[in-house]
Amino acid sequence: MTIHRDRRNGTLWLYRFQAILFMTAAVVSGALMRGISASPAASEVRDGTSKEEIIQKYETFFPYLTERQRRLETKPAELAMISDRTEWKQARRSPAKDFKRLRGDMEALANDLPNEPKLKRQQKHHALSLKFNGLQGIHALLSPNIQRRLSKFPRKGDLPALAGGMLQDLLNDVDPSTYTKPWADIDKFDKRSFGLQRIIFKTVYYLFRHGEITREQYVDFFRNKNNMELAAINMIASFKLEYSSHSFYPKYPRSQYILSNDYSSHLWPLFPLLKENERRKFIYDSERSVIIYHNSYTQSIEKELVDSFFNNNKFFNALEQHHIKNFTSNIKKNGDLRNQESDWIARQKDLDKMINLDKNEDPDQNKKLIQEHLDKIVKCFDESRNLKGENEGKLMTSFLLSNFIKENYGDNILQGDHEASKSFNDRFLLVSSTFQFLEKISYIQEFIDHSSDLLQTSKIKDTRKRYHDLKLLKSYVRILFQENNNFKNTYLNLDSLNRVYVQQWESMDKKLHLMVSISSIKNRIKPVDLKVTKTS
C-alpha cells in the first residue's frame, strides 16, 4: 500500500480511513468492481454543467495543463514542434538572460553542501568548485560583451566551437562513478554532480537555440563518446533528485512522463535531428535509468532479471538487428528496393557501426534471445496476477519493457515471436491506462502545489475568478476518476480486475490528497459573499 508523504494532514487521513472502510465493504458485496452501474452516467449534468462542457471549459481555462497532459502521448521526435510554436518562442529569453539564469543555478548548486563528514565535504566542495569555476569561465566567454569585442577579429566563429570543446572536457571530468554503480542508491549520490552535468547540457542547448553553433555541432556534441547515454541518465536522475520528495511525484514514473515535462525541454530539439536507431537508444537508456534508479521498481525484483535485459545492451542490439532484418525483407517483398535502397543502406551502416556483429554466430541467436526475454516479460505479468505488494514492481517493470518494444518495434515482435494472450493484452491496456491517468493527476497536483506556494508569498488577485476556476478543476478531476473506473470495467471482468488492477491505493491517495488540496485553497480564497453557501 502506498502511504502518502503528507502524514500530518488529519483531514486527509480521515478521508482515507473512510475510503478504506468503504472499499472493504464494497469488495465484500461486489459493488465496487461492478463499474458503471455504480457510477454517474457519462454525460450526467453536475450543477447544471455537463461532462462535455466541463472538459471544454477546462481546456479553455487551463491550456497549460491541457498541453502538458497531451504531451504524455506525444512521441519524442514530435516534442520539438512544441518549442517551434509561436507562443513558445515568445516565452524564450534573450541569450544574456538564459546564461544569467544558468549562472544562478550554478551558484545555488555550489552552495548546496551534502550532509557528509566535514573533511569529505570540504574535499568534494573544492573539487566541484573548480568545475563550477571552469563552467563560469565558459559562460563568461559567451557573454555578449566578450562576443562583441571578439567580433572585430577574424575567425569569430571559432569561439562557440572552443566552448563546445571545453564543455566536453568538463563533462568528461564530472564524477564518472555516478554511472558505474547502476544499482547504488541514487539518493546517496552528490546531487551537485548531476546538476553540473545538466547545466552543461543546457549550455549546449542555449548555444544552439541562439544560433551560436550549427545543428551539426549541436548533434555532434551528443554523438561524441557516450554523451547521449549520459544525457538520458541525467534527465532521469536529476529529475528524481529534484522532485521525488514532492507529493505529485508518481510512485512508478515512466521516462515519457519525465521527458515530456518542461524540465527536460532542453533535450526536445535533439530528437528530430537524431537517426531512428539513435532515438530508440535514447529511450532505451531512459527506461533503464527509470527502472534501476527507482526503488519502487527494483525493491521487488531480482537484479539478475533486469541485468538480463540491460547487460551490455545485448537485448537492445538483438531487437535492432531483428528490426533491420524485417525492414529489409519488407522492402524486397514489396518490390520497392530502388526507392528505399538509400534509406536501407544508411540504416545498415548505422547498425553495423553501433553493433559489432559476430559473423560466426548462430543466425537464429537474436531470435532466440528475443524469445527468451519475451518469455520473461510474460512470466512477470503472470506472476503478478495475485497482487501482493512485492509483485507490483515486477508488473510495472515488465510493462515498461513490453511497452518499449511495442512503441519502437511494433506489435509484430510481441505477437510474432510470442503469442500474446487476450488476458496479457487486457492487462497491458489496463496498466497503460493507469499510468497515463496517474500522470495526469500528478500534473494537476503539481499545479495546485504551486498555487498553494503562491498564496504563501503573495496575495492572489481576482480571487472570485480563481475560486470558480478551482471549482471547475475539481469537477474535471471527478471526471478523470470516473472515466478511469469506466475504462477498467469496459476491459476487465470482476475476477481479473481483482487480480490485475494495480496502483489502486496510489489512485486513492492521489485523488484524496488532490481533492483536499483543492478544497484547502478554495476555502482560503473564497470570496466573503460566497461563504454563506455550501462549498462544492
Structural overview:
The chain is mostly helical and 536 residues long. Among the domains are: 10-61 and 423-530, no CATH class; 301-420, no CATH class. The chain has 25 helices and no strands. It has helices at residues 10-29, 51-61, 63-71, 76-84, 86-90, 95-110, 118-141, 144-150, 158-172, 191-209, 215-223, 227-243, 255-259, 276-292, 295-298, 303-310, 314-334, 337-354, 365-383, 389-409, 411-417, 422-457, 463-491, 494-500, 504-525. Helix 7 (118-141) runs antiparallel to helix 9, helix 10 (191-209) crosses helix 12 (227-243) and helix 22 runs antiparallel to helix 23 (463-491). The longest helix is centred in the C-terminal third of the chain and has 36 residues, at 422-457. It is globular and about 65 Å long. Mean pLDDT is 72; it is low at 1-45, 152-157 and 354-360.
Count of runs of 4 or more consecutive helical residues: 25
Unreliable stretches: 1-45, 152-157, 354-360
Query: How much of the sequence is in beta strands?
Result: under 5%
Helix share bin: 55-70%
Give the beta-strand count. Answer: 0
Biggest sheet architecture: none
Indicate the structural class. Answer: mainly alpha
Encode the helix/strand succession as letters: HHHHHHHHHHHHHHHHHHHHHHHHH
Rounded to the nearest angstrom, the distance between the terminal CA atoms is 29 Å
Q: Write down the overall mean pLDDT.
A: 72
What's the overall geometry? globular
Radius of gyration, in angstroms, nearest whole number? 26 Å
